[in-house]
Amino acid sequence: MKKGSFAADIYLSKCIENSLAVLPAWDKILWFGKPEVFPPQKERASKTMHDALYPFECRQAKLSYTGKFLVDICFQYDDGAVIREKINFGQFPIMLKSKLCHLRAADDSRKLIAHKEEPSEMGGYFILKGLERVIRLIILPKRNYPMSMARNSFRDRREGYSDKAVVIRCVREDQSAVSLKLYYLNNGSARLGFWIQGREYLLPVGIILKALVDTTDHEIYVNLTCCYNEERDRVKGSVGTQLVGERAKIILDEVQALSLFTRAQCLRHIGEHFQPVMTGMQNDSYKTVADAVLRDYIFVHLDNNHDKFNLLIFMLQKLFSLIDQTSVLDNPDSLQNQEVLLPGHLITIYLKEKLQDWLLRLQRLLQEETDGEKKKFELSSLADVKKAIDKNAPKQMGLAIENMLKTGRLVTQSGLDLQQRAGMTVQAERLNFLRFLSHFRAVHRGASFAGLRTTSVRKLLPESWGFLCPVHTPDGEPCGLLNHMTASCRITSYYDSKGNVKDFFKMRMSILNVMIAIGMTPSSPKLVQAGPPELLSVLLDGRIVGYMSSDLIEKAVTHLRRLKLSSTSSIPVDLEVGYIPLSMNGAYPGLYLFTSPSRFVRPVRSISAPAEEGNDLELIGPFEQVYMEISCPDGGDGGRKTVFPPTHREIHPTNILSVVGNLTPWSDHNQSPRNMYQCQMGKQTMGFSSQALNCRADQKLYHLQTPQTPIVRTKAYEKYCVDDYPLGTNAIVAVLAYSGYDMEDAMVLNKSSVDRGLCHGHIYQTETIDLTEQSVKSDRAQRLFRRSNLDKSSHRLIDSDGLPYVGQRINPNEPYCSIYNEITSQTTSMKLKGSEPVVVDYVSVDVKNKTHLQKANIRFRRSRNPVIGDKFSSRHGQKGVCSQLWPDVDMPFSGVTGMRPDLIINPHAFPSRMTIAMLLESIAAKGGALHGKFVDATPFSNTMKESESESSSLVDELGSMLTACGFNHHGVEVLYSGVYGTELTCEIFIGPVYYQRLRHMVSDKFQVRSTGQIDHITRQPIKGRKRGGGVRFGEMERDSLLAHGAAYLLHDRLHTSSDHHIADVCSECGSVLTSSIIQPPKRAVTILGLPPAREPKKVTCLACRSSKGMETVAMPYVFKYLAAELAAMNIKMTLKLSNGAGA
Amino acid sequence: MDGVSYQRFPRIKIREVKHDYMKFELRDTDSSIANALRRIMIAEVPTIAIDLVEIEVNSSVLNDEFISHRLGLIPLTSERAMSMRFSRDCDACDGDGQCEYCSVEFYLRVKCLSDQTLDVTSKDLLSSDHTVVPVDYSDGLDNATNKGIIIVKLRRGQELRLRAIARKGIGKDHAKWSPAATVTFMYEPEIYINEDMMESLTLEEKQELVDSSPTKVFAIDPENKQVIVVDPEAYTYDDEVLKKAEAMGKPGLVEIHAKEDSFIFTVETTGAVKASQLVLNAIEVLKQKLDAVRLSDDTVEADDQFGELGAHMRGG
């Protein structure tokens, strides 16, 4: 089964260790040690017995799938022995099928089934309070790559700033990131900007340069200007210009102006300025503060100051070249400069921050305790310290992670260098398999882009070829922002293909060795090298490792690529060899090597390198792809000149499609938006959502009773085992205008087909009743499930345990469970809402509380057989609504076979939509059905054929299948009218098409009301289907009635049937508000047993103090309300009454 | 119009009769009668099918509705159906299966006790009436392989216990009561070959013409190399040959007409009634319907009610 490589991998220990290693230790007394996370276990009274907690139990009991999270805290007093103490940090959510998950051991489907899971369960999500949630993949700027950018907002930073900058997102080994911006000033200088605690600090670049290493002005000058060579000015690939030297002078002058000459002075300067903002360093020397700033904020991915210095020089050169227009901007919206945020990384950086906060709080707490008045607190006493630790609520840590996953919200001060703080997780809906799968393959551009008015971020760029599916993106609001990875695309992680943790240090060392062997000059602190076009910088994961002559470099690249394929070399298979060649004012040249995790990669076939050991599949990334020559089987030579022969070849043209996009048969014959619609509709199809249906307690599950596998299918169907979760039915579809009920995308279903089970389905709905939850709020009443012995009426439905009988049919407003309150001795029952009967499918109870049942799941089943108004769709974006269940005998029939269609669609569905593949599917499925075999409908497959001899078109191929069985070549048949028995005037296109039943069903949507609840303020009907409200008769509806002149109807809808009211109006003062009813004094006089005559209501105007001018006027009640509202604003409304004719 | 009689005397010639298959010719009538016969066979000849299911125990993987639906679709032998009563018309009972005039009771009691999956089939249904039983599809030869229609499969420990009541009904109400798998008719084609024109064709052209029809209507006589009609009824009115002739520049080479008054019927039943019986029953139902129209007071009433419209409706 397919899954992203990221899915099951949560590299807890490794990342936690990393994150803890850099935590600030306080006075060398206290620091974090080894973290430990345990597999999920059940809460039990006895401490010795530990039962494993399985995911299905979490789903049913609405628990979280979490394991105990312990961290060693180490104490050391006065250089004494280190004391380790395990502290419980609460419950840590465990991803399914990760290392700590119980399902990890279940490697085959039988074991999974034994654990009551899907046979093809692939994990990758969390279970929190019974809900399955996935961490979204979010696009981030590519790490450790300096990117040139232009933003108008840069100008607003401060006076003199230009709109250009070089930006780098530096990522530490523990995945936490710090972004740095190198701004260009209009005077030729540059500023380095970084954020500390929500504020951006801008430093002159010269100070940083000097602070990083002991250097002289001359060295800096030479380093900066090395990229300029007078002889090579303005030749291909040269990036430097004369101006660089002048700018270097300005930079150096700036530092001098601040009278900073030595490294020590620069460090002091930095330390002085940053001491207030560096937490916990109030007492340290300026130099330590400055070191901390350089360590924690400047190029955090590098440890060595010389490397930092070199990178800063490189960035300055890139910035100057951008200004001098010898290189172009990098596009931040292009996939070339992007990577993705992985679930493990997000949890790690979030946890790191939480732990840091916790340690800081603990530090403060200990400080307070020791400084406290009582002086009882002894820092050396372990018990006291532990008490303080307990006070600091360590268990909140697990809860914080759980809450983050549950809500998708990051509660953080720093923002973790991420663009968004909400929407990090989504619920993994199991509506059907495709939808579930898509949650794991979806890549979101980031919530901050959703509000952007420009469409540039949503554009489909050529850089995403092969990595993001061009078809599978929703239309409408999130279009282009929510993309899906292609079927072959995966993401690099800390683990290699065998599941072992990668050793990045070893990897980099071997790459370095290889590079040096080929002829790279390794960078050394004081070495000054010429720049492009003679020498190109070689960057490995954002570190300048050396320089290489531009003549050699191409050879080096091919050599590296060959080593990537070889299994014997220690070069990682997913190494990205981003070689940006020399060009005339193109992208800034260089050789950029990446081994980092969270990059996109995809396999392509290497054709230049001799296939070693039969492995010619090379993993390439989007950064290198742009500069590679990859031929596509259906693209011919792609306009490529012979000078650039293809070095790689696509495995199959369908590799640009996502899993869902791959399932559309012959999508290459469809108009492209139709394929997009199908990707949408495929995900809202009612299908076989789960095979472990009986073990699930989802709120709502859609289930198709008799699904089929499509006759016409792509290769992807077998590859992704879609047959395990089928999604539709092969229906015999006739394309004709018949009965008139197939107009405007409506479709006519054959009633007998529906009788026989076509598209029958169910909705499974689970109600969870938790008595403990409710009793906490109320008066701690003991409540249990029990039925009343007095009221026998419900005994038909409810068993003696207070829960319904399984298999029992329950009608609306009938009770389905009854609850007994021990204190009030009252029995209440829960009644079924809605308007349709349900069947009790399943009842499960939580037996944790052995004496009294407190929690129960009741699963209802609603039959959803096709009715008028239900939505169906073929696999080609052709959706329609069932408009009639037409009698079988009235359907047209074939004279030869006697066959009647299952459904009829209108021929007008085709000309404008051009879904040719649907016609092909019909012909192919007919042929396939006649021959008893499946038909392969993989798109672009004609280009993959080995022999070119078969020049026949697809239609001829399919047509010959039909003629072989005595059918018309084009899939048409002579049909006879079912009503008259006469031949229809033309031949009708008829054949099986795979139809999906969509989840939108009238039974869930219809809304009707005669009278009912009204809003108590306006006295108009309330809204909302659930509450029995009305359908809004809005402004546009009003307009249309006005235009028709249907005044009576208008009056009826908006007044009589809405908020008709008879108001008493005082004609003297014209007020509707001042009327008051005078209660006539009660005269208890009854005249001879007759009922007392109704006295006419006495109404009086309070303002005029008379009832003389009181009149009754019919008006909408809101009008009176309006008058009251206006009165509250001191506006008086007066009515002038007249008797109709007069003005 | 008055006085002229359009009465015709339709003839039926039976070509082939099997238990559940029949082919016959219907001549000297028009499409309205032919289609009426077809429609009645599909939708209005009564059969017996399970209509009410009381489930006692169901621990199988399929839910109650699913099993009930499957039970309903099992064809039951319905020779008795014509003489039975609709349960809605039955005075003797309230349709609870106790009454022999309108309903038949079935029991299904199966439990799987072995490790092998147990197929619950239509043969496990126990009928209270030996004339109404699930249709036996075995052709008498190999009973070992043919075990009836599978209802559900049970694993060890699963059990299915239910009582079902079969009732009389017609296919119009629900497809489960339809006795016909397929009923279709075609107009008998008349094919004329213009011999003179045909002579002008070469042998290859003749072969092309013959091959242009997807079904084997024409052939070339191996002796005199003439195009002959081998099976006119194989013709599906697809006009392929006519189009071919036109494409050859010889319109009128072949002429095909549908005879307006003769039909070839193909009837296939589900096994609930014999194919021959189905046709007879259909004619019976048609007669009853005609009688109902002729004898009904409604005809007169309708005249009063609709006035001129009534006359119009009768073709006046």
UniProtKB/TrEMBL annotation, chain A:
Localisation per UniProt entry: Nucleus
Domain RNA polymerase beta subunit protrusion residue range list: 46-382
Q: Which reaction does it catalyse?
A: RNA(n) + a ribonucleoside 5'-triphosphate = RNA(n+1) + diphosphate
Q: What class of enzyme is it?
A: transferase
Give start and end of each DNA-directed RNA polymerase subunit 2 hybrid-binding domain.
661-1027
What Enzyme Commission number(s) does the record list for this chain? Answer: 2.7.7.6
What molecular function does GO assign, one term? ribonucleoside binding
Where is the RNA polymerase Rpb2 domain positioned along the sequence?
164-340, 428-491, 1029-1136
Instruction: State the source organism's domain of life.
Output: Eukaryota
Residues annotated as domain DNA-directed RNA polymerase I subunit RPA2: 545-602
Q: A Pfam family for this UniProt protein?
A: RNA_pol_Rpb2_2
BP GO annotations? DNA-templated transcription; megagametogenesis
Question: What InterPro entries does the record tag this protein with?
Answer: DNA-dir_RNA_pol_su2 (IPR015712), DNA-dir_RNAP_su2_dom (IPR007120), DNA-dir_RNAP_su2_hyb_sf (IPR037033), RNA_pol_bsu_CS (IPR007121), RNA_pol_bsu_protrusion (IPR007644), RNA_pol_Rpb2_2 (IPR007642), RNA_pol_Rpb2_2_sf (IPR037034), RNA_pol_Rpb2_3 (IPR007645)
Q: Could you tell me what this protein does?
A: DNA-dependent RNA polymerase catalyzes the transcription of DNA into RNA using the four ribonucleoside triphosphates as substrates.
Sequence similarity: Belongs to the RNA polymerase beta chain family.
Protein name in UniProt: DNA-directed RNA polymerase subunit beta
Instruction: State the organism of origin.
Output: Capsicum annuum (Capsicum pepper)
Organism classification, top ranks? Eukaryota, Viridiplantae, Streptophyta, Embryophyta, Tracheophyta
UniProtKB/TrEMBL annotation, chain B:
Print the keywords alphabetically: Acetylation, DNA-directed RNA polymerase, Nucleus, Transcription
Matches recorded under InterPro entries: DNA-dir_RNA_pol_30-40kDasu_CS, DNA-dir_RNA_pol_insert, DNA-dir_RNA_pol_RpoA/D/Rpb3, RBP11-like, RNAP_Rpo3/Rpb3/RPAC1, RNApol_insert_sf, Rpo3/RPB3_RNA_Pol_subunit
**One term under GO cellular component:** RNA polymerase II, core complex
* Biological processes, Gene Ontology terms: transcription by RNA polymerase II
Looking at the record, the residues that make up the DNA-directed RNA polymerase RpoA/D/Rpb3-type domain are 21-296
Spell out the molecular function terms from Gene Ontology. DNA binding; DNA-directed RNA polymerase activity; protein dimerization activity
Where would one find the signal peptide in this protein?
Answer: none
* Annotated compartments: Nucleus
> Primary place of residence?
nucleus
Instruction: Say if the entry is tagged with keyword Transcription.
Output: yes
What is the top-level taxon of the source organism? Eukaryota
Q: Which HAMAP family match?
A: RNApol_arch_Rpo3
Q: Which NCBIfam families match?
A: PRK00783.1
Family under the similarity heading? Belongs to the archaeal Rpo3/eukaryotic RPB3 RNA polymerase subunit family.
- List the protein's name: DNA-directed RNA polymerases II, IV and V subunit 3
Q: What organism does the record attribute this protein to?
A: Capsicum annuum (Capsicum pepper)
